[in-house]
Write a structure and sequence with these properties.
Structural class: alpha+beta
Number of strands: 7
Strand content: 15-25%
Strand order of the largest sheet: 5-6-1-4-7
Order of helices and strands: EHEEEHEHEHE
Radius of gyration: 17 Å
Distance between the termini: 37 Å
Shape: globular
Length: 147
């Protein structure tokens, strides 16, 4: 099967957006790690964001990935806190990563670390959000594209 676009195929536009907001003071390795964890959360709960499996010309199969780009933003701790409040008020699908998770080594301890802290006291270092483009843009108000 050949899924390559032909000149007659219009470009695919999405009416939704996947975005990750990172706290601006993270180390490079932390930014990459947090982004990977956050988008995995969206892919596991929202099957509509996952595309079809890949296959190369020799028929070697590869796992499916998210079907649309992930836009990565950064902002201050205050920007992240405000975005978190906005995503909750809009009830959009979201994933969080807190500073406490850098000290844990497994999924059980990660969940316990988040569960141990009240919503308003979370030490947010990353937030992923999915939803209609305009709603996600409103959540990210004050953030800037990651360089």
């Amino acid at each position: 099967m050949n899924d390559a676009p032909t000149p007659a195929d219009p470009p695919v536009r999405f009416d939704t957006k996947i975005a990750v907001l990172l706290r601006e003071d993270l180390e490079t390795w932390q930014r990459l790690n947090v982004t990977a964890f956050l988008v995995s959360g969206l892919g596991t709960e929202l099957p509509e964001v996952v595309g079809e499996p890949y296959e190369d010309a020799d028929g070697v199969p590869y796992l499916p990935m998210l079907r649309q780009p992930v836009l990565v933003f950064e902002g201050s701790k205050e920007t992240l806190t405000a975005a978190h409040a906005r995503v909750l008020s809009r009830a959009l699908p979201r994933a969080v990563f807190t500073g406490d998770l850098f000290a844990t080594g497994n999924d059980r301890d990660n969940r316990a670390a988040v569960r141990a802290v009240g919503t308003d006291a979370l030490d947010l270092v990353g937030l992923a959000v999915y939803g209609p483009r305009n709603a996600v843009d409103k959540v990210l108000k004050g953030a800037r594209m990651h360089p």
